[in-house]
C-alpha cells in the first residue's frame, strides 16, 4: 500500500481486526496484497444474451453472445481524453445500482390484471407471463452482483448498493418483506393464500390477455407462440428460494409502486379490504365497479367503509373466492420505512437510508456518507395524489440544494438517487384538500444540479430501460451524467455497477457495467429449479409482444461505458492513503461477511 506508511498500515489492520473479529495476521496478509481486477467475474463485458431468432408470431428462445467492451463517451468532457489515463487512474468508489425490482405476489386479490381486457396499452404491466418468478430473479441477481463485488476494471471492493425504487409491485407488505429478505439474505417461499397451490388469473381461463401456461391455446399468448408449461404455477409458489444477501450495505428510496397502488392510484378502505380478503375480481367491470370506484366516488370515510363492506361481503359478478391472507396488507409510507429499519444489521445499514426520524416526521428522503468523500442524497420523487410519474417537492429541492452546497465546501463528490428520471419528472397533480407546496420539474431540477460541479451523477430508474444521458453545464464547463438502469421484471432483466475513477489528469470517469442475473441464457424445458425459473423468466420477458423488449437494452453507449467529465475539484486533495484506508476497510468487511457466511 504505497499511500500508507508501515505504522498507518498496522494501525489500520488493528482497527479492522477489532471491528471484524478476524485475526490481525489474516487481515494483514490479505490487505497487504494489491487490488486485483476480477476480470473473469461474469458480466456483460464477457457475455451478453440475445434472441436466437426473429420473426412475426414466433416465440423466441435466447442464446449467449459475445461480451461488450467499455465505450468512452465524451459528451461532457468535449475533448479527446489522454491515452495515459489507463496507466495512472485510481478507483475512488465502486457501487452497485439496482432499480425496479418489482417483487410480485402474483396471487394477490388486489392486482389489476382484469384491466388488460379493457386496454392493453393503458394497463400493460398489470400482468406479465413471468409474474410468479420475481423472487427467483432477485435472488439470482443478488448472486450476480456479489460475483462482481470486486471491480473487473481496477479490483476495487464494492462500497454500497444503491436501489432506486419500485421494489414492491402492488403496494404490498408481503412483497416488501420478500424483497428485503432477499437483499439481506435468507429464504422466501413466494406464495400467499393456500400453501403450495397457485390461486390466480394465470390458472383461470377467463381473460384472453393473461398467459395461461397450463394451456395458452385460448389466449393471446398462444397466438404469439408461447409454450405450454404444465406445472409451472404450482412449482413457482411451492419452491423455497434462497439468497446469500448482498455483499455490501444497501440503500433505497421510494418508487411509485412503493407509494401508490399499482404505482398510480391512492389507496382507500375498499382496496385495503380487497388486498387481504378472499374475493378476487377476474373481470374488469367487477374491479372497476366494486373497488376502483371507491377512491373516486366515495368522498367520505363512512361512505368508503360502507362501500368496502358491500364489496367484501356482498354478491358481485366477475369475482371469485380465493384464500384470504392478512400478510398481503397494503403499505403506508411509514410502514415502508419502518420495515427497512427492522432489517438486520448485516449487510446493513440499519434503515437502508431511512432513520427513526423519517418514520416519526414522515419525511421520506435522506442523506448519507459513503466513505469520507462521497455524499449520497436519496430523494422521494413520487406523487402520492395520482399518477405514475413524479416531481421534486419544494422542501426536498431546498434541502438538496443546501446539502450540495455543504458537500462542495467540503470537497466531497455527490450522487443524487431518485426513482424518476428527467423524462418522467413532470407530474403536477396536487391534492384537492390539505396543504400543498410547489413541485419542481425536470428543467428546474437539472438547472439547480448544474450549480454544483461536485454533483457528478444522478442515478434513477422508472422506465425499465438502460439509458445514459449527458447533462453538460451551460457554457460547456463540466456537467453531470444521468444514469438510468433497466429493471428485474422486464427484459433484459439487468442491473449495473458504477465505478468512480480519478484519471489523475484533471478528468474523472464513471464506468458503468451492465449485469445479467445468474442463470443460463437458454431455459431447459422442465427445469423448475431456482436457477431454471430465473432463466425461464428472462425468456418469457424477451417475448413481450405488447412492448419492444429489445429496445429496453438501450444502445451500446447506454450499457458498458466510460463516462468522462472534468474533475470538479483537485482530486489530489484525496490522498492515496485516504483511498487505500477506505478500500482496506471495505475489504476487511467483505472478509468478515464471507467468514460469517462460511460458519453459518
Instruction: Label the structural class.
Output: alpha/beta
Provide the number of structural domains.
2
What helical percentage do the residues reach?
25-40%
Strand count = 21
Q: Name the CATH architecture of the largest domain.
A: 4-Layer Sandwich
Name the shape in a single word. globular
Largest sheet: 7 strands, mixed
* CATH classification class of the largest domain: Alpha Beta
CATH homology superfamily of the largest domain: Metallo-dependent phosphatases
Helical region count? 17
Enumerate the strands of the largest sheet in spatial order, edge to edge or round the barrel.
3-21-20-19-4-5-8
CATH topology of the largest domain: Purple Acid Phosphatase, chain A, domain 2
* Low-pLDDT segments: 294-306
Strand percent estimate:
15-25%
Give the rounded overall mean pLDDT: 90
Please give the radius of gyration in angstroms. 24 Å
N- to C-terminal distance:
32 Å
How does this model look, in words?
By secondary structure, the protein is an alpha/beta fold. It has two domains: 6-34 and 577-599; 63-569, Metallo-dependent phosphatases (Purple Acid Phosphatase, chain A, domain 2, 4-Layer Sandwich), CATH 3.60.21.10. 30% of the residues lie in helices and 17% in strands. It has helices spanning 6-20, 24-32, 85-88, 120-123, 134-147, 173-184, 220-223, 232-238, 269-276, 284-297, 301-313, 333-341, 356-361, 394-409, 442-449, 530-542, 576-599; strands at residues 47-51, 62-66, 71-73, 90-98, 160-163, 186-188, 241-243, 250-252, 279-281, 319-321, 366-370, 374-378, 392-393, 413-417, 439-440, 455-460, 467-472, 479-484, 494-502, 507-516, 561-566. The strands form six sheets. It has a seven-stranded mixed beta sheet with strand order 3-21-20-19-4-5-8. Strands 11-12-14-16-18-17 form a six-stranded mixed beta sheet, with helices on one face. The protein has a two-stranded antiparallel sheet with strand order 1-2. Helix 9 (269-276) packs antiparallel against helix 10 (284-297) and helix 10 (284-297) runs antiparallel to helix 11 (301-313). It is globular. Mean pLDDT is 90; it is low at 294-306.
